[in-house]
């Protein structure tokens, strides 16, 4: 099981880093060598990733990275807006002093990353913040939904992280979420998270508008 999880996480991270492109074929023998494991483990991992929507299997052609269209990415993010709003509200309702300290520290590190232009570090801290909120919220069903949706969104999230000025906009939104959770304001924590995810949807739409003229050339 541990080996299977390692392969699953490894492929997810490779997609995020751009090492695996959409529609790229996943060769079992190469994955076995890359992760130093058996075909049995690789096949189990690919089945799990297929269930998450990251991988697709084609008859007589094997597995490949599934391409998520911009339209589907926006629909996924609309679902995230509702579920992550719930998570933020739950976190605000039950965050301890230690939880608030953790969230505040992450927020401070995010601000430092933006100030120094460390975009990948900011992206990692972004993921850490959302994961910490889920941990504080202790809503297992919401966690499973978000983790599955996140796996399908990694390529688009990577593209968003490289948009000039996006991290500065996102930072302010995250700081509002942290502040609301810190003071136990359930309504504002949910509203702040929903506003943040709405901003992500706007940014995805903007990416689509930028790509459209290029596609028509």
Describe this entry's structure for a reader.
The chain is mainly alpha-helical and 217 residues long. The chain is 79% helix and 5% strand. The protein has nine helices and three strands. The radius of gyration is 18 Å and the shape is globular.
Topology (elements, then pairings):
Elements: H1 2-17, E1 25-26, H2 28-35, H3 39-52, E2 55-58, E3 62-65, H4 70-94, H5 97-116, H6 119-137, H7 140-161, H8 166-182, H9 186-215
Antiparallel strand pairs: 1-3, 2-3
CATH domain class of the largest domain: Mainly Alpha
The arrangement of helices and strands along the chain is HEHHEEHHHHHH
What distance lies between the first and last C-alpha atoms, to the nearest angstrom? Answer: 48 Å
Return Rg in Å. 18 Å
Uncertain stretches:
none
Shape estimate = globular
Largest sheet: 3 strands, antiparallel
């Amino acid at each position: 099981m541990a080996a299977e999880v390692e392969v699953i996480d490894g492929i997810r991270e490779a997609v995020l880093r751009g090492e695996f492109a959409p529609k790229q074929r996943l060769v079992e023998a190469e994955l076995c060598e890359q992760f130093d494991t058996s075909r049995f483990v690789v096949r189990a991992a690919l089945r799990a990733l297929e269930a998450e929507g990251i991988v697709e299997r084609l008859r007589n052609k094997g597995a490949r990275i599934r391409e998520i269209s911009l339209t589907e990415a926006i629909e996924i993010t609309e679902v995230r807006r509702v579920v992550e709003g719930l998570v933020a509200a739950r976190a605000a309702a039950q965050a301890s002093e230690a939880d608030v300290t953790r969230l505040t520290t992450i927020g401070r590190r995010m601000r430092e990353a933006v100030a120094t232009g460390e975009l990948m570090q900011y992206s990692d801290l972004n993921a850490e913040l959302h994961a910490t909120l889920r941990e504080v919220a202790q809503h297992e069903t919401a966690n499973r939904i978000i983790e599955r949706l996140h796996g399908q969104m990694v390529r688009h999230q990577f593209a968003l992280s490289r948009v000039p000025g996006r991290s500065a906009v996102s930072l302010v939104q995250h700081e509002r979420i942290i502040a609301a959770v810190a003071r136990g304001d359930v309504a504002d924590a949910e509203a702040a998270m929903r506003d943040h995810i709405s901003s992500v949807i706007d940014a995805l739409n903007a990416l689509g508008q930028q790509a459209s003229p290029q596609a028509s050339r």
